[in-house]
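Comment on this:
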Amino acid sequence: MRVSNALRLAPCAVATCVALAIGSARTASAAEILIGDAKSQPESMTVAPGGVLIVGSASSPFVYKVKAGGTTAEKFIDATAEGPGTFFFGMLADASTNTLWTCQLTPVPNTTPAQRHTTLRSFDLATGAAKIRWMLPGDNTTCNDFAFGPDKALYITDTSVGRIYKLPAGASEAVLFSDARVLNGIDGITFLDGVMYINNVVFNKLYRIPVDANGKAGGPVDIWMDQLVKAPDGMRAANGKIFIAENGGGKILSVTITGDKGSVTVLKDGLKTPTGVEPAGDTLWFTERATGKVMSMPMPK
């Protein structure tokens, strides 16, 4: 999510999806792919089975697909009929159910100040056929990102309202999981070693969310990072680290967590508004929203 958009955010990587994508990721470890055109604003992305890239657009009602090893983005999902100004944030492929999860945002007509409704949607990974649709509660919401937890539930962030929702496995409607005050501005979410972490794009923070034996969320625990991270956005975990797209600083980062401290390493800088990040095999993919590109680099050792 770009801070200049006020409240604009990719999803936690699914282990099964990443494993299936490894072979193709290894053959495309230094890619630079234009998604449609320079104005497509790819916000979030995911890697589907076989190394297929699926990329959302924050400036159009389209989700794009790039075949493994390809350089051309094809329109995969067309939400033009959903209303003027519709666009997409979070993207997450779940190979185990052949499902693509997305965050769809649509402006509410004739509202001052402007409002928008956002919907958690899922589609068939192969055909793009629509599956689940669940509108986030509230008059002005921002479905942003999501991650699967150890319980197989999908956890969804709402940046505008400052909430985390939980969609249990097999359910079609989510329930409130946490609305702690510090979640106002929540963006990325991921699980590292079964533990939930979220970031805050507005206040430049990283938190751990403790969960008790009954599955209830505790108060967010501040993770002290050893350097300023300006507007942390998309966030994924792999190989014992958390990867973050720092949209305010133009960087891709890795964070090593030790207790309540985070050691930050800059993997790449000089980028123009990176917003999504996705590890797959020995490749780390990321979106550069301001240039309309999806790029990659070798996974750091």
